Amino acid sequence: MGHDLALLIPEIIILLTVVVALIAEMLRFPRTVLTVTIIGLLLATAQTLPLLGVDTGVFGGTFRVDMLSVWAKLILLPATVLSLLLARSELAGSDREGTVYILVCLVSLASVLLAGAGDSMLLVLGILLSGLASFALVACPRNDIATEAAMKFFVFASVTTSVMIFGLSYWFGGTGSTLFSELATLQTKPVIAVIGLMAVIIGLGYKASLVPFHFWAPDAYEGAPLSIAAYLSVVPKIGAIMAFAQIVRDIPMVTAWSLIIAVVAVLTMTYGYLAALVQNNVVRLLAYSSIAQAGYFLLGVVAVGASPLALKSLIVFAAAYAAMNLGAFAVVMQVGRTLETFYGIGRKNPALGVAMVVFLLSLAGIPPLAGFVGKFLLFGAAIDAGFLWLTVVAILNSVLSLAVYLRIVVPMYQRRRDSGLSAAAADIKSINDPVTAPAPLITLVWIIALLSTLGIGLAAQLLLGQLG
After folding, report:
1. Which residues of 329-361 are buried (b: 16+ CB within 10 A; e: fewer)?
2. CA torsion, points 205, 12, 46, 232, in degrees to nearest 10?
3. CA–CA dist 102, 137 (Å, integer)
4. Cβ atoms 30, 101 nearer than 8 A
5. Domain extents for the chain?
6. d(CA 324, CA 191)
7. CA–centroid distance for 157 within its chain
8. pLDDT value of position 461
9. Which of 5, 221, 363, 372 is deepest in the core (most CB within 10 A)?
């Protein structure tokens, strides 16, 4: 028991952080809540470092402490800190400020649990905890757009999670255990294995916003505060992808799970970028972009167990994605939600313009940026696993992504239109941005994200050595 608890110190620290933050919020000290959450998350990150190289399970294998779950914490917790800084810059002074910080920590705790899940019950717990807190975060603004988005999110999540729980009951009936490590016994029961697999794809697919379980994402990102949209596009998504990887390590090949996930990857990448092409709202464009990026994550998932690059590629791309996506949203917070607001911003603020170009080119997979390194490893893992055709589709979608991201880059270096914002765009901005965001914290976030995006790309070989 003591040994197991010692391996769970980072998770325990996050839980205690939430408790202390709740007390501070009840006393109405939002700045104290922010300080407590940031210190707690950084301390949990520091306590994760000694776990590098550990590969074991705790409490009977229900939670895995391995390369995947450890690196997930090292990515998700710093990403949460950056998200909290964005939230502070956007929500400072609002009556729900402290509550938002606490809910963000709860979603991060749930995402960490998902990344190390070794048991069906822990998977369900992570999905439910993450979902309940996420609904409240989306509904944080008191306006019709946010309320409608949160309700859509809630209904969609309720249905998909219920289907997942129903499907997991088949796995329990077939194996007599809730542990994923027992799924190999379903080799002789392919129907049961496939039913459970499809249910898990539905349940985690909604959390990772995979097609066709993505419908909630664009509305939720548009209705939520921008800092929350940035957070939801990164942390819960990565947690769900890591949970996918943990599960498929034990699913018998008789289910043809890798082919099923490959098809979902193709649908997700292609639809995400095609839908993004017609968006004039930058937040919705980035929402569909994040949907497409989830498809790239699946290239690493299909290679789990078939390529030594699979887990490493997932980790590298997760780190790259967290940096470039948070950075892109931080720039949007400073510029505005519509393409109209981006006209001439590269001329007016060259540093901000260069940062946005770097983030977008990295999302497209242009070398030598972090996104390129991550996608290159994902392509290698998929090819090793025998999915050359999937890699070709992913490369073609990377070309398509250039057309998507250039829709933002080109206006940045054109002269601003005389008409400025349209009345509709101004209304949307005033509804969704009720608090004027001071620039320093946002600037700090995109600078850190920029350095991370450049650093991961340029130091790829060093990072891969550390992963080994």
Report:
1. bbbbbbbbbbbbbbbbbbeebeebbebbbbbbb
2. 30
3. 10
4. yes
5. 258-468
6. 41
7. 16
8. 58
9. 363
d(CA 460, CA 116): 25
Which tokens go with 249?
């390590």
Q: Residue 430 has what pLDDT?
A: 38
DSSP codes of every residue in 65-124: ESHHHHHHHHHHHHHHHHHHHHHHHHHTT-TTHHHHHHHHHHHHHHHHHHHTB-BHHHHH
Q: How far apart are CA 207 and CA 224, in angstroms?
A: 16
CA distances from 302 to 175, 185, 190, 201 (A): 23, 20, 18, 13
d(CA 138, CA 146): 6
Half-sphere exposure of 92 (CA within 13 A, CB side): 14
Strand 63-65 vs strand 56-58: parallel, antiparallel, or unpaired? antiparallel
Which residue, chain included where needed, has tokens 């998770």? 11
| Residue that has been written with the tokens 């995006």 in this structure | 453
Query: Would you give the DSSP letter of residue 56?
Result: E
Alpha helices in 176-281 (DSSP H): 190-207, 216-223, 226-232, 235-248, 257-276
Give the model's pLDDT for residue 94: 84
Using the Cα atoms of residue 168, residue 170, residue 176 and residue 181 in order, give the sign of their dihedral.
negative
- As given in the structure block, the two tokens for residue 392 are 């070709």
Q: Rounded to the nearest 10 degrees, how much is the dihedral formed by the CA atoms of 229, 231, 235, 236?
A: -40
Q: Which string of DSSP letters, residue by residue, matches 252-293?
A: -GGG-HHHHHHHHHHHHHHHHHHHHTT--BHHHHHHHHHHHH
* 432/282 Cα distance (integer angstroms): 13
Q: Which tokens in the block code for residue 179?
A: 């542990």
Q: What is the pTM of this model?
A: 0.91
Which among 448, 451, 445, 447 is positioned nearest to 88, based on CA atoms? 445
- Stretches where the chain sits below pLDDT 50 are 418-438, 468
